[in-house]
Give the backbone structure.
Amino acid sequence: MLVLFPPGCRVSRLRNAFDNDRTVVRPIAFDRSKYGLPLQVDACAIGSIPGFIKKPLPHRLGFYEIALVTSGRGRLELDGAALDVAPYRLCLTRPQETRRWRLENAQLEGWLAFFEADFLDGFFADPCFVESVPAIACAAADRSIALTRKSFDACVDLVGAMADELRTPRSDSSHLLRADTYRLLMMLQRAGRSARVGEADPSLQLAARFAQLLASDARMGEGVAAYAGKLETTTRTLNRCLRSAFGRTAGELIQQHVLLASRRLLLQTQLSAAAIAERLEFSDASYFSRVFQRHMGMTPGTFRRQRKSASAVANVHCETTRDH
């Protein structure tokens, strides 16, 4: 059986057969280079993806997906929770959740928007921003949201506009798509205020306090134990709460925020890589360069040159537009 996956995604190499008794859970990672530009967002109609998984085959996304259902009924299973699937419903999947569609006659139509978390994190300087949106932070069972026709149509119009932008992406498309994604999340939040976020849950409160500490200041030299001490808890409890709330450990979130800070310093200052490594408390500049390259696919110097070059092209485009 050949199973195809959505555009903007690539499937990790796995053995090629599904076994009825022991079905492989297929991981699907985001392809940042699909459009030739380093984009971390995609949008399209479900009907434009002939091989979109509609049968009950388990798979795991490495990114967020917002599905706006226009046709089809059944359930979407997310880590064992069953979400209602019906017209004018929005179903939201978080990264690394094992999911499978259980649809009547495998019928499903609608629109999709999917993106990686740091597509927005980098803009808001907050590695926990996306997970703090109530419609995302709520339990899987609450992430099928019935929308009014007016709200649903507004979301579809926005996702359709994103898809149009992606047909001919330009040097400044990432800025427009980031704004559209943020607007979509806010529309989602307003439409789904009845979803249970669990604000009184001590576990979520601890995760929120950690996020506040991390946003205020994060350095590579400050370990998980130091954060746990400030929060008057144990590293084990802290990691358990963070996995539940954000799907990541404290160490992963610290490193992500430090890398976010390093990218900002590379683009917004003239500090050398060595000076940035010292400010962020890496053991030395070579370790900073290795960590940065492992996560970004390029050295700090290459990142600075490429991003500033892309910014210059975008500025020229904007100036040309104003002249006309």
User: Anything to note?
Assistant: Confidence is low (pLDDT under 50) at residues 1-22, 194-200, 312-324.
